[in-house]
Amino acid sequence: MPWDEQNYPVSMKNLNARVRSKAIEIANALLEEGKAIAIATAKAHEWNDNHPDDSQP
Questions:
Q1: What percent of the chain has pLDDT over 70?
Q2: For residues 4 and 28, is the Cβ–Cβ distance under 8 A?
Q3: CA separation (Å) from 14 to 1, 5, 28, 30, 37?
Protein backbone atom coordinates (compact mmCIF):
# COMPACT_ATOMS: atom_id res chain seq x y z
CA MET A 1 0.00 0.00 0.00
CA PRO A 2 2.39 2.72 -1.14
CA TRP A 3 1.45 6.34 -0.47
CA ASP A 4 1.41 9.29 -2.88
CA GLU A 5 0.64 13.02 -2.84
CA GLN A 6 -3.12 12.36 -2.83
CA ASN A 7 -3.13 9.42 -0.42
CA TYR A 8 -0.88 9.63 2.62
CA PRO A 9 -1.16 9.17 6.41
CA VAL A 10 -3.17 11.78 8.28
CA SER A 11 -0.13 12.47 10.45
CA MET A 12 1.56 14.01 7.39
CA LYS A 13 -1.25 16.45 6.53
CA ASN A 14 0.29 19.46 8.30
CA LEU A 15 3.73 19.05 6.75
CA ASN A 16 4.71 21.48 4.04
CA ALA A 17 4.56 19.95 0.57
CA ARG A 18 8.32 19.48 0.22
CA VAL A 19 8.72 17.75 3.59
CA ARG A 20 5.58 15.66 3.07
CA SER A 21 6.86 14.51 -0.33
CA LYS A 22 10.15 13.37 1.22
CA ALA A 23 8.34 11.70 4.14
CA ILE A 24 6.17 9.80 1.65
CA GLU A 25 9.28 8.75 -0.27
CA ILE A 26 10.98 7.51 2.92
CA ALA A 27 7.86 5.72 4.17
CA ASN A 28 7.47 3.94 0.83
CA ALA A 29 11.12 2.90 0.91
CA LEU A 30 10.64 1.45 4.39
CA LEU A 31 7.65 -0.51 3.12
CA GLU A 32 9.68 -1.86 0.21
CA GLU A 33 12.51 -2.91 2.50
CA GLY A 34 10.14 -4.69 4.83
CA LYS A 35 11.13 -2.45 7.71
CA ALA A 36 7.61 -1.15 8.18
CA ILE A 37 6.42 -4.51 9.51
CA ALA A 38 9.38 -4.81 11.88
CA ILE A 39 8.91 -1.26 13.15
CA ALA A 40 5.15 -1.75 13.56
CA THR A 41 5.69 -4.98 15.46
CA ALA A 42 8.26 -3.41 17.77
CA LYS A 43 5.99 -0.43 18.44
CA ALA A 44 3.05 -2.75 19.15
CA HIS A 45 5.12 -4.64 21.72
CA GLU A 46 6.22 -1.34 23.26
CA TRP A 47 2.58 -0.21 23.45
CA ASN A 48 1.57 -3.51 25.03
CA ASP A 49 4.28 -3.16 27.67
CA ASN A 50 3.07 0.35 28.52
CA HIS A 51 -0.66 -0.47 28.53
CA PRO A 52 -1.31 -3.48 30.75
CA ASP A 53 -4.42 -5.52 30.06
CA ASP A 54 -6.50 -5.27 33.24
CA SER A 55 -9.04 -7.82 31.99
CA GLN A 56 -6.72 -10.76 32.69
CA PRO A 57 -6.74 -12.22 36.23
A1: 95
A2: no
A3: 21, 13, 19, 21, 25
